[in-house]
Amino acid sequence: MGQGQAVTPGPRVRSRIPPPVRFRARDTTIGKGVAVKPHPEPPGARRIRPAAVLRGIGTFTLFGAPGIILYTVFVLVPAAMTVYYSLTNNNPFNPPTRFVGLQNYVQLARDDDFLRALRNTALVTVIVTFAANAGGLLIAQLLDRRGWLYNALRGVFFTPVILSSVVVSVIWQSILSDDGLLNSTLRGLGVAHPPGWFSDPGLALYTLAWIITWQMLGFCVVVYLAGLQGVPTELHEAASIDGADGIARFRHVTWPMLAPAVTINTVMLLITGFKVYDQVQVITNGGPGNGTTTTIAFNVVQTAFTGNHIGYASAMATVMLLLVCGVSVVVLRLLQRREVSM
User: Fold this and answer.
1) Proportion of the chain above pLDDT 70, given as a percent
2) I need a labelling partner for 209 at 20 to 30 A (CA). Which of 35, 66, 120, 142 fits?
3) How big is the chain by its Cα radius of gyration, in Å?
4) CB 263 within 8 Å of CB 220
5) Is the Cβ–Cβ distance between 175 and 262 less than 8 Å?
């Protein structure tokens, strides 16, 4: 390039680096102070609108009102009336009705018949809860296989659950009575004096507990089968590779995974044991002897509809309700805590 020659400028190269963003504060002055203007609502945020809330309440009311009304009329209202009657001396054949406060409950604490019924109910509940749980788990382990035979056996074991308690009681009464099928068979085998399953005061209550256990066994089997089929096979395979035998696999793999099934069965069996009535009414009528097989539910019905002491029977029913609720809640909490810990 020679001296004095004009220099032609080349093309300008535009920088691709964006200029720095300058932020300007948008303040609004309120009096002498300065308040920062709030940021606008993000475009994706949902705003709670009263109309939507009202529509949700209306939908819930439309679909939930029938169930709520039925539950209120047939459960909550009778329970409240029972508690009210328990504080009175209500007797339809001996008016007027007076408010007696806790007098009925004080009398229950000294009533030998009620305390005997309470002990019988507790014993039946404990037997049914443990026996049905253990038997249901054992049978479920045996039926946890594929094939038409195992499917048929599942139906056989579940059949007693769908039968009425009265029907089950009549069947077992014909089998276990003194001249029934079982004792006749034992006499044919040479047993001179077969047991009196319902006539012996030492056996009658345990026989009733066996009948209730037999009827509830199918329910436990179905629940445990569902729990067993939910156990991943990979866990059993990994335990087998580690050298665990069948007992170890059940203890460390199967049993922890069955915790929800144990909770369901235990609570249902507790409730079933506490409200036993049909079997006692149909088979033993509270005997043999003086209250050998009476339960709280049986005493409630006898006191209310035979003795016409509605107030006193309502106090028994209230105690039974509190026992069922209290024991069920405590057991449910303990078993759910076991589920979390496992």
Assistant:
1) 85
2) 142
3) 36
4) no
5) no
Give the helix ranges, DSSP H, for 72-147: 77-85, 103-109, 112-143
Q: What are phi and psi of 258, to 5 degrees?
A: -90, 10
d(CA 183, CA 219): 29
Percentages helix, strand, coil for the chain, rounded to the nearest 5? 65, 5, 30
Query: Taking residues 310-338, what's their average pLDDT?
Result: 92
- End-to-end CA distance of the chain: give it in Å, rounded: 89
Q: What is the pTM of this model?
A: 0.79
Q: What is the mean pLDDT of residues 61-82?
A: 90
CB 335 within 8 A of CB 259: yes
At residue 38 the predicted structure's pLDDT band, cuts being 50, 70 and 90, is low
Cα–Cα distance measured from residue 219 to residue 166, given in angstroms and rounded to the nearest whole number: 18
- The helix or strand, by DSSP H or E, that contains position 297, with its residue range, turns out to be helix 296-301
- Higher per-residue pLDDT: 47 or 171: 171
Q: Which two tokens stand for residue 181?
A: 């099928």
Which pLDDT belongs to residue 303?
Answer: 94
**Identity of the amino acid at 106:** V
At position 6, the amino acid (one-letter code) is A
Distance CA 195, CA 178 (A): 8
Q: Return the ∠ at Cα 128 (arms to 126 and 130), rounded to 5°.
A: 70
Identify the pLDDT of residue 164. Answer: 92
Instruction: Spell out the residues 6+ positions from residue 222 whose beta carbon is closer than 8 angstroms to its own.
Output: 154, 158, 161
